[in-house]
Each structure stands twice: as C-alpha cells, then as structure tokens.
Amino acid sequence: MKRPLAVSGLVYLTVLTVVFYFRTPAVMLAVTAAATLMVCAVLVLRHFKPLPVAALVTAGVSALLAVLSIFLNQNFTVQPLLDRYIGKAVRVEGYLGDLVTENKRGKTYIIHTETIDGAPCSTKISYTVFSKKDWEPFGKLCVTLTPKASTYAYSLSRGIYLRAAESKKADLVMTGEKHRSFYASAVALRLEMQKILDNHLDDNAQSLASAVLLGEKNALEPDVRDAFSDTGMSYLVVVSGMHLAIITMLLKKLLKPRFGAKGILRMILITAFVLLFAAVTGFTPSVVRAAVMMLFIVAAPLFRRESDSVNALGAAALVLTLPNPYVVGNVGLLLSFAATLGILLWADTILRSCTAVLHLSLQPRREKTRVGRAADLCKRAAALPIGLFAVSLSATLWTIPLAMVFFGRITPATVLISFVAYPLTFLLLLLSLLLVLTAWSPIVHVLAPLINGIAQLLTDAVQRSTELPFTSVKTDSPFWYVWMIVTVLLAVIGVIIRGKKNYIIFSVAVSVLTLSIGASLTVLLC
Length: 526
Known about the structure:
Elements: H1 4-21, H2 25-45, H3 53-85, E1 90-102, E2 107-116, E3 119-120, E4 124-129, E5 139-145, E6 148-149, H4 153-157, E7 160-165, E8 173-178, H5 182-200, H6 203-214, H7 222-230, H8 241-254, H9 263-280, H10 285-299, H11 309-321, H12 331-357, H13 370-407, E9 409-410, H14 414-437, H15 444-465, E10 473-474, H16 478-497, H17 501-525
Parallel strand pairs: 4-7
Antiparallel strand pairs: 1-2, 1-5, 2-3, 2-4, 5-8, 6-7, 9-10
C-alpha cells in the first residue's frame, strides 16, 4: 500500500465527522456494521479476484476505530465529567486562557482548571461575565461556579465540555500569579507583534494585517468580516495553512545548502519556526494541519523517503483527531482538509489541462541561451494566473458539499476573486512580517511609512475585490442536494472505472444537466 497514512487518516477523519454530527446509536451501529462487512468481504473475495486488500482493510479498520474513539470519549471522558460537576457549586482553581469572545451580553473567557474542590482536575470551562471586566491571559484565579454542559460543536472541538456564568456567589479572586509555559510566551510575543502593527499601520490596514499575520480576525469590522464570508474568502483573513506554507517555503529558500544550513540543522531550524508560528497564532486546527504536513515533507529526505503530500495530510488528520475526536466539530478544520485534498488531487490536473488548451508548454528549454531564459520567464509569468485558477477551482469544488450542508450557500465567485485577493494578501502578509522583523532596528523609521502606504493600498484593493454582486448563492432548495449526490456518485464511478476523457465529458454534462433541470423545476413549481 503506497499511502497508508493517507488512507487511515482521511477515512478516520471522515467517519468521525459523520458519527459526531449524527451522534445516535443507529448511526454508530450502521457505520460499524458497514465497516465490519467490508473488511470481511475483502478477506473472503481476495481468494477469487485481485483486490487492494491492504488499502480496503486499513480503511475498514480505521472506520471501526473512529466509531470506537467517539464511544470511548463520550462515555469515559465527557460523561463522567458531566456527572461529577453538572448543577453543583464547585470551587475552581486554574488560569485564564488567551481566547476571549465578546458580544452584547458580556465576555466569555476560558478557564483551564488545575483543581476542582481541591482535587486535581485538568479540563476547560467557558466562563461568561456580564460586568465590564478585562483580565489578562494566563492569570491564575479561584472562583466558585455551577457548571452546565457545553453543547456547541465549536466548544466541544476545543475540548470545552463545561460552561458557567458569573453569579453573585462567584467570589472570584485573581491571585496575581501567572501561568508559565511555552504557549504563554508565544502569546506574549503575539501581543508584542500586535503592538508593532498598531503603532506603525493605519487602522484599516492594521486590522487586515493583524488578521492575515496573527489570526486576529476580531480586529476586522463586522461588515468587512461578512464581506469576506459571503464571498468565500474567509481563509484569507484567518491564519491558515496557506500562510504557514508561504512563510515556510521562503525560509526553506533562505536555508538552502549554499547558506550552510544542511540536513538535520536545516530541519531543526524549520521545525522550530513552524512550532513557534503555530503557537503564536494560537494552534488553530488549520495551522496545525499545515504544520504537521510541512514537518513530514521536510523530514522525508532525512529518512531517505520521497515526500508525499497526501500521506502527510492523512498524518495530520491523525495528529489532530486522536487526542480529541470531537475536534471535527470545528467546521473550519473540515473545510481546510477538504480544500487541501482537492488542491493535492486536482490542481495539477486542472493546470495541465488549461495549459494544453492554451498550447502553453511549461517545460523549460534545454538551451540556456538568453532567448531561452526569457522564454522560460514568460512561461512562468503566464502559468501564475493559471496556477491560481487551478488551486482556487479545485479547493472550491471540494468544499462545495460542506458549504451546502453547514452554511446553506455556495460562493462560486471565489474562483474569480482569488485572482486579485490572493496575490494582494500574500504581499500584505510579507510586508507585515517585514515590519515586525525590523521593528527593533533603526531602519524601521524609514520602512514603516512606506509599508503603511503600500499596506493601505493593498487593504483597499482586497476589500474592493469582495464587493462583487451575486457572490453568494443559497442552496436551501432540495435540487442542490440531488445535484450534489449525483455529482459525487459520478466522481466515485469515475475513480472506480478510471474514466478517461469521454467519461469526464459525460459526467460533467450529466452534472450540469441535473443542476439545470432541478433549478428550472424549482422556478416553475414554486
């Protein structure tokens, strides 16, 4: 089996998602029965016909383990915690996390507990305060509260199983001590970087720079956040795998052997940077996914292995889901995996198809003449927008099912907006990083005004790119789901029969026809 981690990790993630969102005994039994029957059928049928036994058995076993992990986590981790503390007044000692959410009612902090009623207990409790209090992260505290069960999928994905609200009997006391850890130091560094951006950039540019470099999405105005969300471009204004990949690739270029950083030393430097970046940006699931993939790819040559991005993606799925199977409650994580898998599987094929249609060969010339070099440069310049189109299209297509299910809409304009927004955001990211790196040197007084002016122009251009009309299409009509099911079935059949050009044309035609007929009938009958 060529890609064991890809098969096990992605099947494990998929089954976890199905079981988590349809958390009923019937679904768990159905998935368990289907996986068991598949494994048994493969083991029996392999004697009669050739089958990819290892891959199919790995997939079946991974599905069974996914169901088992959800069952064990619910009954031996979450439920005992709820039974022990729900509805009871308890005295909690711990420290505040760095995540704070604010709404009209008040602020919600995350308490990382150390003891509950004097007994050691390490868990998380979301604590809502209604008074205008502002506490610094990682401050230690003692508080009396009455927990309730946390029901939001996003909270469960972060390992927050209890919630509580401020009351008159809270008797909250801040001890004045600070929790010390690597992550606390990384958050302190993030705050220093935030101050640098605040001091040297205008408000509009500063908010977008904070979002793309540090993940401070709340720095954006609500209407700006809504505009990015409506056009499907939210991934540009939260720190994601794209940002980490860009910065890490630049670091790899700087650490080429000619600069003296070889082998293990090069891998150690890149690993240290990746871990620091992930910590500074809050260990968001999409960044952790990219970090694990990056480390697998960087370490592959040291073990005399060829790097495989799909295998690394499967490894990232296991790293994220094994500690907490409820992490699939984070929709952003699922979108990140779907988009990345789509890019890895389809982007290169789309790029080659487009270049073939345009009769544009991307193979470099063998002769190293001045004319040959100029021709290669022109090819690379022509391939850049085609590459952006291929990446954006493949990511959009693979995230359509999730967008339909979770948001009730799709954003086809993403493919077009990426042509403008992606390069501009990339440049803004680099300028923000340059400003932070030079903030402690005298050169910042020369660079800061220039960077501020350019950042303001980039911010205006990015925001204008999200103002296109008809960027969001609602998918609350049944025909959208019929179209999605038909299209997925056609894709699966194509993979099984290894459909060539004629099948691809046929399947695209059937998909478009299904969508057209469904939309027409909906308009006529409604």
